[in-house]
Structure formats: structure tokens, C-alpha cells
Design a protein that fits this description.
heterodimer, A: alpha/beta, 6 helices, B: Glutaredoxin, Rossmann fold, 6-stranded mixed β-sheet, 5-stranded mixed β-sheet
């Protein structure tokens, strides 16, 4: 890991996720010092860069697509990153947000904004939010690979810090990832 | 309610209050009450003294068991590949229009229920439907309309059938079926001259070891498809510990395109049962079970009649063939509609009244089978072979077939050919030989061994049918050049496997569903090269499934990718492969726009 080698450029995003996968990456503890020697972050919540400023080598995607903005971000990532990695259950399979996939969207929205017990009298005009500034909700939650080509998948909820670290190092150094059994054994 | 209680009580008593006879109980109760509601299930559980969930899970596993009433006439129209070839879509439409309801529903007047079902073993006379258990082959839209009109006019199923019964024993007073045998080529094993009891008369003068030695010397192999050496199987069971052993005959032919067991059970039931008695003699069993698929319930009375005849002739019962101590009897067991029950351990589970889920092996059925006792499970045709081996000797048998495949094979030829039907041929015939004999021209592909077998193209038609080359359980579906192979054949098979997966192993449960989705995408012109690779890669994961169904469920897809790759390539979506062509953002936000009133 020579510091002189040009750093790989990494972008990350959380779509329909909970940021747990990002938190898991931060769980690499002191290896974070190695990480910043190894890579440079571009668009990512870690450095708060909102838009891509250059072409990236690696894109890490947390979360699936539950609205059209997620789709736009994911498509942008696919265009700007050479390699895309789906990180965590939501990106891989839709995860918890995809629990709504068994219900029609209309029912979900009505439960959330009109009929649910927590709505009470909080929505006297019976409005389902639809401001042009708001993303549009998709008919179901899509895992990332149903929208764009995904090169690698890291399973877990969240994937362990070790697995994310090992995968990043493997990608950066061009070595084959040989994950330990423990790192993807979940029960 | 009293009707339920009364019926359940009577039916359970018929089977001696034995919970392992749950399948029989469910079949009979449904026959009398029309369906198996939760109330009925609770009652059955109560009377049998088992948890209600046991009754419920068995009921829910088999697709001929109904929770809700399925109409005075329940029409199960076959939706197999060959049925589709023969104009099923038009027949289905005629049924829907005449009945005034869709498939999966019962007409408003409660008279007609319409349901899809997988291959019912009539591929040589499609489109065919089961109506209250009776077969109506060669349907046309006109016949469908006539049938529905007849149902509404208050006619019985017998009256609807008329009296134009099929050939051979299909016209037997206990059968009276419209089914035809279509035996196009009579071979020496199954369809040659046969007199019940001749083989048994020789067997009772032999020792069990000599019987097994003869079967081994003849190298008889299982005819269900896997080709396990029969003599070895019998020997394992004979040597297995314990004095209670069972002989099962597997007549649960669910492989689409297969119908030989139906014809053999119609024309040669005595031979099959004699084969079971010989196996029983060899392994030391006193009880046998002939497990027949639900679709052949119309043979029930006839088979009972045959069993009674054989008892009367001293070929079943006590002191068979005059040999003191050789006691053996056979009972019938019908399935409930589940392809996976053709797998021997699933079949045993089913016969014990449970969900037909394959068991983990070892132990194999020859060690721990039915009721945990050593059990031999043989295919219908295998048992016929055993009869002939004992009658004519292993040398005679060894003269038939090829180096590694001795004897004959009963083929079920269907699809795009002039003479679909049964062909008993020696092992070693080529695909071309069969195509020629069946009158097939302009052939695009042949599905050998059914969907779990292989789909081959013309450059492989010189391959021979034999365990060492193209092994087959009998299904031989001819696909003409004018068919859309991926859409009309492969997709149909993919749906079949998804439907028939028992769900026990994750790869099978999940990947049969995912494979269908991906294939639908490819057929719709929205697939990618990566999708094709993905399908191929999944085959490896499928090897981890517990049973043959799961292990072969992607064969229709994988063998066509292998042999008909250009058909896939031609359908792939153009464009940048980084973006999934099947994803449609405009369609995905349509529901939202509608929900907020902006649609």
C-alpha cells in the first residue's frame, strides 16, 4: 500500500437505506487512517460532496430504489463510477423498505397520510404529499441490480466493517477477495 | 355441519382411523363434500387424533385438494406444452365464455369451476381436461361449449362422457374412459403376449437370492429415469435389518409428456402387480403399495377390480403360488397432485399422509422407507421388466438393447408429429429413428426425458436413447420449426417448475421463481447477456437441492442456452448494458401519480 500510488477515487451514497452500512464502514476503527491513504472520496456523505466533481473508480451503494430520485442518483453513479458495489441487504434485495412491496402503493400512502392511527387529525385536508420538489414514490422498492448493472454485492445488514474493508482493499489493490466465512455468516 | 361430522366419521372408519392414510381420507372426504374447508380439516384432525396443522399442511400441499368449493363440475384443463401446441388457448377461452367465469373461479351459479393443471398424462390426445376426475381428451372449443351446456342442463359426468370409449381396456366396464392407448409399437417387454402368474410360478420354485441374482444378471435398471440397478436395490432391501418391509410401485408419472404408466396400468396392470409380488418375494415384504397419481383416479375401480381378481387367482394374498409363507398384498394409494411425489422419498412421505417433500438421504428408502421400514420403490415399467426377466431369463434380456442399457424402453412420443403415442423400443434407437417412426417433419428440437431432461437440436438427433447417451424416463416431446421454442416451450417448463417446487430447499424455491422472471424478461426482448449468464450460473447452485426435481429444474433453460444459444442472443435488448433494459421509470411512478390524483 504505497502512499505514492495514485489514490483510487470512491463515491458513496445511501438510497432507500438507513445509513447503517455507512456507519458500518466507519466501524473499521483505526484502519480509517489507512483508508484515507488508499482512497480519495468524491461524492459521499462522508465528506459532504453533493455532486460528482470527477470520474470515480468505485461507487458504494447503500439502499435500494424507493423513489425516482434514488433512480436518478443510482443512474448517475453508474455513469460516473467504473465499478459499482451494492452494499447491504437493502441494496441487494430491497431490504426492510421492500416489505411494502406486497401492498399496492395507494394503500401504503393512504395508511401513512390518511388513515393510519398516528395521522389522527394531523392532515385535515387529506393530502397525500405531492409537491413538485418531492421525489415520486415508485410502485415498489427495487433492488439496485434491477435498475443498473451492479458489479459486486456485499451481503449483510449491515455488512461487517471487516467485509467492507476487505472488499475495498481488494478492489483498490486489484487482489481477489477471499472473505472469511465469519464475515458473511449471519446466524 | 352434521353432514361434515357424519362424512368424516364414515371415511376415517373406512381407513381404520389410521392417520397415515390421511391422503385417502382427504380424497374421499373431498369427493363427498366438494372441498376441504378449515372446519372439515379440524374435524378430520379431531377424529384421527392428530393436530389440525398436520391435516392443513397436507391439504395445502396438493393442488387437487380444494379449500373452497370448486363447482358442481370442477374442470381441470391441462396447461402443458403439448396441450398449448394442440390449441389449448382456444379451448380455454371457449370454457371461460361458456361458463361465464375465469380460470381459477367458479361460475356464479356454482355449476362450473375452471382450473389450470399441469400435464395430466394425455400428451398424445391434447388438449385434455379432467372433469370431476374423468378424462375428456381431444377437446375443441365446440366440445368445451357443449360440455358446459350439458353441465348446466343437469347432466352427469357419465352422461357428458357419452359412450365412445377408447381402445383396449379403456372400454372395460370398470374404466369406461374416452382415453386412447395409441400403442404404436409393441415391444417384447411390456406389450408382448402376457399371462398373469407365469413368472410367479417360476419364482416360487427359486430362492430369493436366485431371483435377485437373475435380475442382477440381466442388469435391469430403473425406468423412472435415474437408471439405478434394480437387483442392487432389491439386494439392499433384502439385507436391511427388520422383518417388516414394503414394496412400492411408483406410478406417479408427473414428468410432462409422460403417459406410459397410464397405458401400462390400463393394459398390463396384472404384470405390474406381479412384478411387485416378485420384488416382495425377493426382499421379504408382505405389503405393497401401488402409488398412482391423482390424475389417474379414473382407473381406481378398475385397479381395485384387478387386485381382487389376482387375489382370487391366488397371485396375491396368502400362500401365493401355493407356497406356504409367501404372503403379499397390494393396496392402492392415490396422490393429490404434486410432481415432486414422483421422487421416491417424497412419494413415501405422501403415502404416509404427509406433505410430499423429499427426505434427506441417507438413509435411503431401502434402509428406512415407508413408516421407517426398508422399502423398495420401483417404477411401473421396471417391474414389468423384472417379470419378463424371471419368465424368459437374463440371457434373453441381455440380448436386447445396448452395451450398458439392456432391455426395452417405453417411449411417450408427443408434440409435432403425425403419430403421437406409445413406442416400446429396444434401448439404442436414435432420436432420428423415433422421429421417423412417429412421422415428425421439420423438427426444431426434441425434449428428451421431459423438462428435467434435455432439449436437443437436429445436430444431435443421431444420438441414441440409452443410459450411456440420452437417458430418459420416457417423455419425448417433438417441437416443430414453426414454434417459438423459448416462449412456447422453455417458459412453460419454467412456470411448471416454479409451481411444482415443494419449497423445502431455498435454491429451488427461490431460483425457480427468479429464473421464470428472468426468462420472461428475455422472451419480452428486455433481457441482457448478463441475464443469460446468470441463468447458467444458477444451475451450479441448484445442484445443492435435495432432490432430482430441484437439481434439474433449470435444465430446460440451461440445455436450450447450450443448444439454442442464437435464439437467446436474438432476443437480447440493444443498448448500453450498464442500464437494465427491463426497468421502466415511467411505469414505476404511474401508481404514485394516480394515487395523488395526477395520473
Amino acid at each position: 500500500m504505497s502512499a505514492k500510488a495514485p489514490k483510487k477515487i470512491v463515491a458513496t451514497t445511501s438510497l432507500a437505506g438507513c445509513f447503517g452500512c455507512h456507519m458500518s464502514l466507519l466501524d473499521i476503527d483505526e484502519r480509517i487512517l489507512d483508508l484515507i491513504e488508499l482512497v480519495e472520496f468524491n461524492k459521499s456523505p462522508f465528506d459532504d460532496i453533493k455532486t460528482f466533481t470527477k470520474e470515480c473508480d468505485i461507487g458504494l451503494i447503500e439502499g435500494g430504489c424507493c423513489n425516482d430520485e434514488n433512480v436518478h442518483v443510482l443512474t448517475e453513479f453508474r455513469k460516473r463510477c467504473k465499478v459499482l458495489v451494492a452494499v447491504g441487504e437493502c441494496a441487494l434485495m430491497g431490504g426492510l423498505p421492500a416489505l411494502r412491496n406486497v401492498l399496492p402503493l395507494k394503500e401504503c400512502l393512504e395508511e401513512a397520510y390518511l388513515n393510519g392511527p398516528t395521522v389522527a387529525d394531523g392532515n385535515p385536508d387529506k393530502i397525500i404529499p405531492h409537491d413538485p420538489d418531492l421525489p415520486k414514490i415508485l410502485n415498489r422498492v427495487y433492488p439496485c441490480h434491477e435498475v443498473v448493472k451492479i458489479d459486486y454485492f456485499l451481503p449483510g445488514c449491515p455488512p461487517s466493517a471487516d467485509l467492507i474493508w476487505d472488499a475495498l482493499v481488494a478492489l483498490v489493490t486489484g487482489q481477489e477477495l477471499d472473505p472469511s466465512y465469519r464475515s458473511f455468516k449471519f446466524d | 355441519m352434521p353432514a361434515i361430522a357424519q362424512t368424516v366419521k364414515q371415511v376415517v372408519a373406512r381407513y381404520g382411523g389410521d392417520a397415515t392414510r390421511l391422503m385417502d381420507v382427504l380424497i374421499d372426504v373431498q369427493d363427498e363434500l366438494g372441498c376441504l374447508s378449515h372446519v372439515t380439516a379440524a374435524r378430520i384432525a379431531d377424529v384421527l387424533g392428530i393436530p389440525q396443522v398436520d391435516v392443513e399442511q397436507t391439504t395445502s400441499f396438493y393442488h387437487f385438494f380444494a379449500r373452497e368449493p370448486r363447482g358442481k363440475f370442477a374442470v381441470y384443463l391441462n396447461d402443458s406444452v403439448v396441450a398449448e401446441f394442440c390449441g389449448r388457448a382456444e379451448v380455454a377461452q371457449a370454457f371461460e365464455e361458456a361458463a361465464g367465469c375465469k380460470f381459477g373461479e367458479v361460475s356464479a351459479d356454482g355449476v362450473v369451476g375452471l382450473f389450470h393443471t399441469a400435464c395430466i398424462g394425455m400428451s398424445d390426445q391434447e388438449p385434455a381436461a379432467l372433469v370431476n376426475g374423468q378424462v375428456f381428451p381431444k377437446l375443441t372449443p365446440e366440445k368445451a361449449r357443449e360440455l358446459v351446456a350439458g353441465m348446466r342442463a343437469g347432466r352427469t359426468v357419465e352422461e357428458l362422457k357419452g359412450d365412445q370409449y377408447g381402445d383396449g381396456q379403456n372400454a372395460h366396464p370398470e374404466v369406461r374412459a374416452l382415453v386412447h392407448n395409441h400403442v404404436r409399437r409393441r415391444g417384447v417387454m411390456v406389450f408382448d403376449h402376457y399371462r398373469p402368474g407365469e413368472a410367479l410360478a417360476k419364482v416360487v420354485k427359486m430362492s430369493s437370492g436366485e431371483v435377485i441374482a437373475a435380475v442382477k444378471a440381466a442388469s435391469v435398471r430403473g425406468r423412472g429415469g435415474a437408471g439405478f440397478p434394480t437387483g442392487m436395490k432389491w439386494d439392499f432391501a433384502r439385507r436391511a435389518a427388520g422383518d417388516v418391509k414394503y414394496v412400492f410401485c411408483n406410478a406417479d408419472e408427473g414428468e410432462p409428456g409422460t403417459f406410459k404408466d397410464r397405458v401400462i396400468l390400463t393394459e398390463r396392470p396384472q404384470m405390474v402387480i406381479e412384478g411387485m409380488a416378485i420384488a416382495a418375494f425377493a426382499v421379504g415384504a408382505r405389503r405393497g403399495v401401488l402409488y398412482v397419481r391423482h390424475e389417474y383416479l379414473y382407473l381406481r375401480a378398475y385397479l381395485e377390480h384387478v387386485l381382487a381378481d389376482l387375489r382370487a387367482q391366488g397371485l396375491l394374498g396368502t400362500a401365493i403360488g401355493g407356497l406356504a409363507g409367501f404372503d403379499f398384498d397390494v393396496s392402492l394409494q392415490f396422490g393429490g397432485g404434486a410432481y415432486v411425489c414422483g421422487e421416491e422419498s417424497a412419494l413415501i412421505e405422501s403415502a404416509e399422509g404427509k406433505r410430499g417433500e423429499p427426505r434427506d438421504r441417507p438413509p435411503f428408502p431401502v434402509e428406512k422407507g415407508y413408516l421407517q421400514k426398508p422399502t423398495v420403490v420401483n417404477n411401473v415399467e421396471t417391474l414389468c421388466s423384472a417379470v419378463q426377466v424371471l419368465l424368459k431369463g437374463p440371457e434373453w434380456y441381455n440380448r436386447l438393447g445396448t452395451e450398458k442399457s439392456k432391455g426395452t424402453k417405453v417411449l411417450c412420443v408427443s408434440g409435432d408429429c403425425d403419430r403421437p403415442g406409445i413406442y416400446e423400443v429396444e434401448w439404442g434407437f436414435s432420436v432420428n429413428d423415433i422421429l421417423k417412426e412417429a412421422g415428425a417433419r421439420d423438427v426444431q428440437a426434441v425434449q428428451v426425458g421431459g423438462p428435467s431432461g434435455a432439449c436437443i437440436g437436429p445436430d444431435e438427433f443421431n444420438r441414441v436413447l440409452a443410459y450411456e447417451d440420452l437417458a430418459t424416463g420416457g417423455s419425448f416431446i417433438v417441437v416443430g420449426k414453426h414454434r417459438d421454442l423459448l416462449k412456447d416451450v422453455v417458459l412453460n417448463f419454467a412456470r411448471f417448475f416454479r409451481e411444482e417446487s415443494c419449497g423445502s430447499c431455498v435454491p429451488c424455491r427461490a431460483l425457480t421463481g427468479m429464473a421464470q422472471v428472468v426468462l420472461e424478461r428475455i422472451v419480452a426482448g428486455k433481457g441482457t447477456a448478463e441475464d443469460v449468464e446468470r441463468l447458467r450460473a444458477w444451475q451450479k447452485i441448484m445442484r445443492n437441492n435435495r432432490c432430482g426435481l430441484g437439481q434439474t429444474a433449470l435444465n430446460p433453460i440451461v440445455t436450450t442456452i447450450q443448444n439454442f444459444r442464437p435464439l437467446y442472443a436474438a432476443r437480447l435488448a440493444p443498448g448500453d448494458p450498464r442500464f437494465v433494459p427491463s426497468f421502466d421509470l415511467a411505469a414505476a411512478i404511474r401508481d404514485y401519480d394516480a394515487a395523488v390524483g395526477k395520473g
